[in-house]
From TrEMBL:
<dbReference type="Pfam" id="PF14230">
    <property type="entry name" value="DUF4333"/>
</dbReference>
<feature type="domain" description="DUF4333">
    <location>
        <begin position="15"/>
        <end position="86"/>
    </location>
</feature>
<keyword id="KW-0732">Signal</keyword>
<feature type="signal peptide">
    <location>
        <begin position="1"/>
        <end position="21"/>
    </location>
</feature>
<dbReference type="InterPro" id="IPR025637">
    <property type="entry name" value="DUF4333"/>
</dbReference>
<protein>
    <recommendedName>
        <fullName>DUF4333 domain-containing protein</fullName>
    </recommendedName>
</protein>
Length: 102
């Protein structure tokens, strides 16, 4: 069976921006995980097996968090980068690695 790489399915993923309501100066891991999964599903039509963002995303522009996406049984790394906070929302980008992790 041939596996389609997730990065090939989502060529514009690196330019996808989201906004989350922030109750503090960071997005908690559970909320970030849910938002990453929701965005990939709704914006790009990708059904992931699992998403895990174990660390909070700070609101400070340029802050990064690494997440793991499982797609068709393979794990991919993803970098979520904060674009800063505005009006109690944190905007961020998601960029999926081109190759699955070993």
């Amino acid at each position: 069976m041939q596996t389609t790489r997730i990065a090939a399915m989502i060529p514009m993923l690196g330019v996808a921006a989201l906004a989350l309501t922030a109750c503090s100066s960071e997005v908690e891991p559970d909320e970030l995980t849910a938002e990453v999964e929701r965005t990939l599903t709704s914006e790009f039509g990708v059904e992931l097996d699992a998403v895990d963002c174990p660390d909070p995303l700070p609101a400070e522009e340029g802050s990064e968090v690494r997440c793991t996406l499982t797609y068709e049984g393979e794990d991919y790394g993803a970098t979520v980068t904060s674009q800063g906070e505005e009006d109690d929302q944190i905007n961020f980008l998601i960029e999926v690695d081109e190759e699955p992790t070993d």
